[in-house]
Fold:
Amino acid sequence: MIAKLDELRSRALGELDSIDTSSGLEAWRIRYLGRKSALTEVLRGLATLPLEEKRATGAAANELRTFLEKTLTLKEEAIRESEIARSIEQGQLDVTLPGRPSALGRLHPTTKLLRHICDIFMAMGFEVIEGPDVEWDYYNFEALNIPQDHPARDMWDTLWMDFETEDGRQPMLLRTHTSPMQIRVMESRRPPVRVIVPGKVYRYEATDATHEAMFYQIEGFAVDKNITLADLKGTLFEFAKRLFGEERKARFRCDYFPFVEPGVEMAIDCFLCNGAGCQLCSGSGWIEILGAGMVHPDVLRRVDYDPDVYTGFAFGLGLERMLMLKYGIDDIRLFYSNDLRFLRQF
Ligand code: FA5
Structure:
Protein backbone atom coordinates (compact mmCIF):
# COMPACT_ATOMS: atom_id res chain seq x y z
CA MET A 1 0.00 0.00 0.00
CA ILE A 2 2.85 2.36 0.90
CA ALA A 3 4.48 1.59 -2.45
CA LYS A 4 1.20 2.43 -4.18
CA LEU A 5 1.15 5.78 -2.41
CA ASP A 6 4.76 6.51 -3.47
CA GLU A 7 3.87 5.71 -7.04
CA LEU A 8 0.83 8.01 -6.77
CA ARG A 9 3.03 10.85 -5.50
CA SER A 10 5.52 10.64 -8.35
CA ARG A 11 2.74 10.35 -10.95
CA ALA A 12 0.96 13.40 -9.52
CA LEU A 13 4.15 15.48 -9.41
CA GLY A 14 5.12 14.42 -12.91
CA GLU A 15 1.77 15.52 -14.33
CA LEU A 16 1.78 18.75 -12.36
CA ASP A 17 5.04 19.81 -13.96
CA SER A 18 3.50 20.02 -17.41
CA ILE A 19 0.34 21.93 -16.34
CA ASP A 20 0.27 25.69 -17.07
CA THR A 21 -3.41 26.69 -17.06
CA SER A 22 -6.00 27.09 -14.28
CA SER A 23 -8.38 24.69 -15.98
CA GLY A 24 -5.62 22.05 -16.29
CA LEU A 25 -4.86 22.50 -12.61
CA GLU A 26 -8.51 22.01 -11.64
CA ALA A 27 -8.60 18.74 -13.58
CA TRP A 28 -5.42 17.65 -11.75
CA ARG A 29 -6.99 18.49 -8.38
CA ILE A 30 -10.05 16.38 -9.14
CA ARG A 31 -7.86 13.52 -10.34
CA TYR A 32 -5.57 13.40 -7.28
CA LEU A 33 -7.53 15.03 -4.44
CA GLY A 34 -11.16 14.70 -5.56
CA ARG A 35 -13.81 12.42 -4.03
CA LYS A 36 -13.17 9.66 -6.55
CA SER A 37 -9.36 9.92 -6.54
CA ALA A 38 -7.11 6.94 -5.77
CA LEU A 39 -5.90 8.70 -2.62
CA THR A 40 -9.44 9.18 -1.27
CA GLU A 41 -10.09 5.51 -1.96
CA VAL A 42 -7.01 4.47 0.05
CA LEU A 43 -8.21 6.66 2.94
CA ARG A 44 -11.69 5.15 2.75
CA GLY A 45 -10.33 1.61 2.71
CA LEU A 46 -8.25 2.11 5.90
CA ALA A 47 -11.02 0.73 8.11
CA THR A 48 -10.70 -2.73 6.55
CA LEU A 49 -6.90 -3.03 7.13
CA PRO A 50 -5.29 -4.82 10.07
CA LEU A 51 -4.34 -2.42 12.88
CA GLU A 52 -0.57 -2.15 12.23
CA GLU A 53 -1.01 -1.62 8.51
CA LYS A 54 -3.88 0.81 9.12
CA ARG A 55 -1.63 3.01 11.25
CA ALA A 56 1.27 3.12 8.79
CA THR A 57 -0.86 3.51 5.70
CA GLY A 58 -3.10 6.11 7.35
CA ALA A 59 -0.14 8.27 8.33
CA ALA A 60 1.43 7.99 4.88
CA ALA A 61 -1.84 8.72 3.06
CA ASN A 62 -2.59 11.79 5.20
CA GLU A 63 0.95 13.05 4.73
CA LEU A 64 0.57 12.62 0.96
CA ARG A 65 -2.75 14.51 0.96
CA THR A 66 -1.26 17.45 2.90
CA PHE A 67 1.74 17.46 0.58
CA LEU A 68 -0.42 17.46 -2.57
CA GLU A 69 -2.65 20.25 -1.21
CA LYS A 70 0.35 22.47 -0.45
CA THR A 71 1.86 21.76 -3.82
CA LEU A 72 -1.46 22.63 -5.45
CA THR A 73 -1.61 26.02 -3.66
CA LEU A 74 1.92 26.92 -4.76
CA LYS A 75 1.18 25.92 -8.32
CA GLU A 76 -2.08 27.92 -8.31
CA GLU A 77 -0.21 31.09 -7.38
CA ALA A 78 2.44 30.49 -10.01
CA ILE A 79 -0.18 29.92 -12.70
CA ARG A 80 -2.16 33.03 -11.68
CA GLU A 81 0.93 35.18 -11.92
CA SER A 82 1.93 33.78 -15.28
CA GLU A 83 -1.65 34.22 -16.59
CA ILE A 84 -1.62 37.89 -15.54
CA ALA A 85 1.79 38.36 -17.14
CA ARG A 86 0.52 36.66 -20.29
CA SER A 87 -2.61 38.82 -20.52
CA ILE A 88 -0.55 41.99 -20.03
CA GLU A 89 1.77 40.79 -22.76
CA GLN A 90 -1.16 40.16 -25.08
CA GLY A 91 -2.52 43.61 -24.30
CA GLN A 92 -5.78 42.39 -22.68
CA LEU A 93 -5.11 44.47 -19.58
CA ASP A 94 -4.20 47.99 -20.63
CA VAL A 95 -2.86 49.63 -17.50
CA THR A 96 -2.57 52.94 -19.35
CA LEU A 97 -6.38 53.25 -19.68
CA PRO A 98 -7.86 56.00 -17.47
CA GLY A 99 -9.50 54.65 -14.31
CA ARG A 100 -13.26 54.68 -13.73
CA PRO A 101 -14.20 57.96 -12.04
CA SER A 102 -15.67 57.36 -8.59
CA ALA A 103 -18.93 59.23 -8.01
CA LEU A 104 -18.46 62.18 -5.66
CA GLY A 105 -21.05 62.75 -2.98
CA ARG A 106 -22.54 66.21 -2.40
CA LEU A 107 -24.20 68.04 0.43
CA HIS A 108 -27.96 67.76 0.80
CA PRO A 109 -29.75 71.06 0.02
CA THR A 110 -30.95 71.38 3.63
CA THR A 111 -27.38 70.98 4.91
CA LYS A 112 -26.19 73.64 2.47
CA LEU A 113 -28.85 76.16 3.44
CA LEU A 114 -28.43 75.35 7.13
CA ARG A 115 -24.71 76.14 6.93
CA HIS A 116 -25.37 79.29 4.93
CA ILE A 117 -27.89 80.58 7.49
CA CYS A 118 -25.54 79.70 10.38
CA ASP A 119 -22.79 81.68 8.60
CA ILE A 120 -25.07 84.72 8.30
CA PHE A 121 -25.90 84.68 12.01
CA MET A 122 -22.33 83.93 13.07
CA ALA A 123 -21.25 87.02 11.14
CA MET A 124 -23.73 88.96 13.31
CA GLY A 125 -22.10 87.61 16.48
CA PHE A 126 -24.33 84.59 17.23
CA GLU A 127 -22.86 81.35 18.56
CA VAL A 128 -24.06 77.98 17.18
CA ILE A 129 -25.16 75.38 19.75
CA GLU A 130 -26.92 72.06 19.20
CA GLY A 131 -29.28 70.22 21.54
CA PRO A 132 -30.91 66.81 22.06
CA ASP A 133 -33.61 65.51 19.70
CA VAL A 134 -35.23 63.57 22.56
CA GLU A 135 -36.57 65.94 25.20
CA TRP A 136 -38.34 66.10 28.51
CA ASP A 137 -41.85 67.56 28.65
CA TYR A 138 -40.41 70.26 30.93
CA TYR A 139 -38.11 71.77 28.29
CA ASN A 140 -40.38 71.29 25.28
CA PHE A 141 -43.52 72.64 27.00
CA GLU A 142 -43.62 73.41 30.72
CA ALA A 143 -40.68 75.81 30.91
CA LEU A 144 -41.93 77.53 27.77
CA ASN A 145 -45.18 78.55 29.48
CA ILE A 146 -47.15 75.61 28.12
CA PRO A 147 -48.31 73.63 31.17
CA GLN A 148 -50.26 70.33 31.02
CA ASP A 149 -53.74 70.88 29.60
CA HIS A 150 -52.78 74.25 28.06
CA PRO A 151 -54.67 74.48 24.75
CA ALA A 152 -51.48 75.71 23.03
CA ARG A 153 -50.14 72.13 23.24
CA ASP A 154 -52.38 71.44 20.26
CA MET A 155 -50.13 73.71 18.18
CA TRP A 156 -47.53 70.93 18.27
CA ASP A 157 -48.68 67.36 17.57
CA THR A 158 -46.24 65.35 19.63
CA LEU A 159 -44.50 61.99 19.33
CA TRP A 160 -44.28 60.61 22.87
CA MET A 161 -42.10 57.84 24.29
CA ASP A 162 -41.33 56.39 27.72
CA PHE A 163 -37.99 56.53 29.44
CA GLU A 164 -36.97 54.19 32.28
CA THR A 165 -35.52 56.03 35.30
CA GLU A 166 -34.89 55.10 38.93
CA ASP A 167 -38.31 56.58 39.76
CA GLY A 168 -40.08 54.48 37.14
CA ARG A 169 -41.14 55.25 33.58
CA GLN A 170 -41.07 58.93 32.68
CA PRO A 171 -42.69 60.40 29.58
CA MET A 172 -40.26 61.81 27.00
CA LEU A 173 -40.87 63.17 23.54
CA LEU A 174 -39.19 63.94 20.25
CA ARG A 175 -38.80 67.72 20.40
CA THR A 176 -41.50 69.45 18.39
CA HIS A 177 -39.42 72.62 18.01
CA THR A 178 -35.94 73.91 18.80
CA SER A 179 -37.28 76.33 21.45
CA PRO A 180 -36.45 73.97 24.39
CA MET A 181 -32.84 74.99 23.79
CA GLN A 182 -33.71 78.52 24.91
CA ILE A 183 -34.22 77.07 28.39
CA ARG A 184 -31.26 74.68 28.34
CA VAL A 185 -28.85 77.43 27.25
CA MET A 186 -30.18 80.09 29.66
CA GLU A 187 -30.11 77.58 32.54
CA SER A 188 -26.40 77.07 32.04
CA ARG A 189 -25.28 80.65 31.32
CA ARG A 190 -25.72 84.16 32.57
CA PRO A 191 -26.54 86.99 30.14
CA PRO A 192 -25.51 88.21 27.67
CA VAL A 193 -26.41 85.24 25.45
CA ARG A 194 -26.63 85.34 21.66
CA VAL A 195 -27.18 81.86 20.27
CA ILE A 196 -28.62 80.02 17.28
CA VAL A 197 -29.68 76.37 17.44
CA PRO A 198 -30.06 74.41 14.20
CA GLY A 199 -31.58 70.92 14.45
CA LYS A 200 -34.19 68.37 13.54
CA VAL A 201 -37.67 68.54 15.00
CA TYR A 202 -40.51 66.02 14.84
CA ARG A 203 -44.28 66.26 14.66
CA TYR A 204 -46.98 63.64 14.67
CA GLU A 205 -48.73 64.81 11.57
CA ALA A 206 -49.86 63.53 8.20
CA THR A 207 -47.46 64.73 5.55
CA ASP A 208 -48.58 66.86 2.63
CA ALA A 209 -46.99 69.33 0.20
CA THR A 210 -46.01 71.75 2.99
CA HIS A 211 -45.82 69.47 6.06
CA GLU A 212 -43.23 66.87 6.96
CA ALA A 213 -43.15 64.74 10.15
CA MET A 214 -39.43 65.48 10.48
CA PHE A 215 -37.93 68.81 9.42
CA TYR A 216 -35.26 71.30 10.43
CA GLN A 217 -35.69 74.43 12.46
CA ILE A 218 -33.22 77.13 13.37
CA GLU A 219 -33.85 78.81 16.69
CA GLY A 220 -32.23 82.12 17.53
CA PHE A 221 -32.29 84.18 20.70
CA ALA A 222 -30.46 86.99 22.40
CA VAL A 223 -30.83 88.11 26.02
CA ASP A 224 -29.12 91.10 27.61
CA LYS A 225 -29.88 94.44 29.19
CA ASN A 226 -31.89 96.83 27.00
CA ILE A 227 -32.80 94.45 24.17
CA THR A 228 -35.98 95.61 22.45
CA LEU A 229 -38.32 94.59 19.66
CA ALA A 230 -36.34 96.98 17.43
CA ASP A 231 -33.27 94.72 17.89
CA LEU A 232 -35.34 91.69 16.84
CA LYS A 233 -36.61 93.55 13.79
CA GLY A 234 -33.18 94.88 12.84
CA THR A 235 -31.58 91.43 13.17
CA LEU A 236 -34.23 89.57 11.20
CA PHE A 237 -34.61 92.18 8.44
CA GLU A 238 -30.85 92.19 7.96
CA PHE A 239 -30.87 88.37 7.88
CA ALA A 240 -33.62 88.35 5.22
CA LYS A 241 -31.64 90.79 3.06
CA ARG A 242 -28.47 88.71 3.32
CA LEU A 243 -30.31 85.49 2.52
CA PHE A 244 -32.84 86.59 -0.08
CA GLY A 245 -31.24 89.74 -1.51
CA GLU A 246 -31.22 93.51 -0.86
CA GLU A 247 -34.39 94.13 -2.87
CA ARG A 248 -36.64 91.93 -0.65
CA LYS A 249 -39.07 93.70 1.67
CA ALA A 250 -39.99 92.26 5.06
CA ARG A 251 -42.84 92.85 7.51
CA PHE A 252 -43.87 91.90 11.05
CA ARG A 253 -47.43 91.05 12.07
CA CYS A 254 -48.87 89.98 15.43
CA ASP A 255 -48.85 86.27 16.21
CA TYR A 256 -49.20 84.13 19.33
CA PHE A 257 -46.64 81.82 20.95
CA PRO A 258 -46.97 81.19 24.71
CA PHE A 259 -43.26 81.78 25.37
CA VAL A 260 -43.01 85.27 23.81
CA GLU A 261 -44.78 88.54 24.49
CA PRO A 262 -45.43 90.21 22.14
CA GLY A 263 -45.31 87.49 19.47
CA VAL A 264 -44.88 88.16 15.75
CA GLU A 265 -44.71 86.40 12.42
CA MET A 266 -42.32 87.67 9.82
CA ALA A 267 -43.08 87.60 6.11
CA ILE A 268 -41.16 88.68 3.03
CA ASP A 269 -42.64 89.96 -0.21
CA CYS A 270 -43.19 87.20 -2.73
CA PHE A 271 -40.23 86.41 -5.04
CA LEU A 272 -42.40 85.27 -7.84
CA CYS A 273 -44.75 88.22 -8.21
CA ASN A 274 -42.73 90.89 -6.34
CA GLY A 275 -45.66 91.49 -4.01
CA ALA A 276 -48.37 91.77 -6.65
CA GLY A 277 -50.07 88.52 -5.60
CA CYS A 278 -49.79 85.08 -7.23
CA GLN A 279 -50.43 81.38 -6.60
CA LEU A 280 -47.25 80.91 -4.54
CA CYS A 281 -48.21 83.63 -2.04
CA SER A 282 -51.93 82.78 -2.21
CA GLY A 283 -52.61 86.19 -3.72
CA SER A 284 -51.41 88.13 -0.66
CA GLY A 285 -48.03 89.25 -2.04
CA TRP A 286 -46.35 88.07 1.22
CA ILE A 287 -44.82 84.77 2.33
CA GLU A 288 -44.51 83.91 6.03
CA ILE A 289 -41.04 82.66 6.96
CA LEU A 290 -40.80 82.48 10.74
CA GLY A 291 -42.28 82.99 14.20
CA ALA A 292 -40.63 85.30 16.74
CA GLY A 293 -41.13 87.62 19.70
CA MET A 294 -39.76 89.02 22.94
CA VAL A 295 -38.89 86.30 25.48
CA HIS A 296 -41.78 86.10 27.99
CA PRO A 297 -40.90 87.42 31.50
CA ASP A 298 -42.14 84.12 33.02
CA VAL A 299 -39.66 82.20 30.88
CA LEU A 300 -36.84 84.49 32.07
CA ARG A 301 -37.90 84.02 35.70
CA ARG A 302 -37.86 80.25 35.30
CA VAL A 303 -34.15 80.32 34.42
CA ASP A 304 -33.37 82.85 37.16
CA TYR A 305 -32.93 85.84 34.89
CA ASP A 306 -34.49 88.97 36.41
CA PRO A 307 -37.00 90.31 33.80
CA ASP A 308 -36.69 93.80 35.33
CA VAL A 309 -33.02 93.80 34.38
CA TYR A 310 -32.84 91.59 31.31
CA THR A 311 -34.92 91.34 28.15
CA GLY A 312 -34.47 89.26 25.03
CA PHE A 313 -35.85 88.22 21.69
CA ALA A 314 -36.31 84.76 20.13
CA PHE A 315 -37.24 83.43 16.72
CA GLY A 316 -37.71 80.04 15.04
CA LEU A 317 -37.68 79.35 11.33
CA GLY A 318 -38.46 76.27 9.25
CA LEU A 319 -35.56 75.38 6.98
CA GLU A 320 -37.35 73.32 4.33
CA ARG A 321 -40.01 75.99 3.88
CA MET A 322 -37.22 78.51 3.22
CA LEU A 323 -35.68 76.18 0.66
CA MET A 324 -39.05 75.81 -1.03
CA LEU A 325 -39.33 79.58 -1.29
CA LYS A 326 -35.76 80.10 -2.41
CA TYR A 327 -35.99 77.54 -5.22
CA GLY A 328 -39.74 77.57 -6.02
CA ILE A 329 -40.20 73.92 -4.92
CA ASP A 330 -43.85 72.99 -4.58
CA ASP A 331 -43.63 69.80 -2.46
CA ILE A 332 -41.63 69.50 0.79
CA ARG A 333 -41.64 65.67 0.56
CA LEU A 334 -39.15 65.83 -2.31
CA PHE A 335 -36.34 66.67 0.12
CA TYR A 336 -36.38 63.30 1.88
CA SER A 337 -37.58 60.92 -0.83
CA ASN A 338 -33.98 60.27 -1.93
CA ASP A 339 -34.61 60.92 -5.62
CA LEU A 340 -31.14 61.74 -6.94
CA ARG A 341 -32.56 63.48 -10.02
CA PHE A 342 -34.07 66.04 -7.64
CA LEU A 343 -31.15 66.29 -5.22
CA ARG A 344 -28.50 66.70 -7.94
CA GLN A 345 -30.04 70.00 -9.03
CA PHE A 346 -28.67 71.83 -6.00
C1 FA5 B 1 -42.53 77.10 16.44
O1 FA5 B 1 -42.15 75.93 16.34
C2 FA5 B 1 -41.93 78.03 17.44
N1 FA5 B 1 -41.04 77.32 18.30
C3 FA5 B 1 -41.21 79.17 16.71
C4 FA5 B 1 -40.82 80.30 17.61
C5 FA5 B 1 -39.56 80.33 18.18
C6 FA5 B 1 -41.72 81.33 17.88
C7 FA5 B 1 -39.18 81.37 19.02
C8 FA5 B 1 -41.34 82.36 18.73
C9 FA5 B 1 -40.09 82.39 19.27
P1 FA5 B 1 -44.16 76.92 14.41
O2 FA5 B 1 -44.89 75.71 14.90
O3 FA5 B 1 -44.96 77.95 13.73
O4 FA5 B 1 -43.43 77.66 15.64
O5 FA5 B 1 -42.97 76.43 13.48
C10 FA5 B 1 -41.97 77.31 13.02
C11 FA5 B 1 -41.72 77.09 11.54
O6 FA5 B 1 -41.48 75.71 11.28
C12 FA5 B 1 -42.91 77.45 10.65
O7 FA5 B 1 -42.90 78.81 10.34
C13 FA5 B 1 -42.65 76.62 9.43
O8 FA5 B 1 -41.71 77.25 8.59
C14 FA5 B 1 -41.98 75.38 9.99
N2 FA5 B 1 -42.91 74.23 10.10
C15 FA5 B 1 -43.90 74.06 10.99
N3 FA5 B 1 -44.51 72.87 10.82
C16 FA5 B 1 -43.90 72.26 9.78
C17 FA5 B 1 -44.01 70.99 9.12
N4 FA5 B 1 -44.90 70.07 9.51
N5 FA5 B 1 -43.19 70.69 8.09
C18 FA5 B 1 -42.25 71.59 7.72
N6 FA5 B 1 -42.05 72.80 8.29
C19 FA5 B 1 -42.86 73.15 9.32
Notes: Strands lie at 127-128, 134-136, 160-165, 168-174, 193-202, 214-224, 250-255, 260-269, 286-295, 311-318. The first strand starts at residue 127 and ends at 128. Residues 155, 177, 179, 203, 205, 211-212, 215, 217, 219, 257, 260, 290-293, 314-318, 320-321, 332 surround adenosine-5'-[phenylalaninyl-phosphate] (CB under 6 Å).
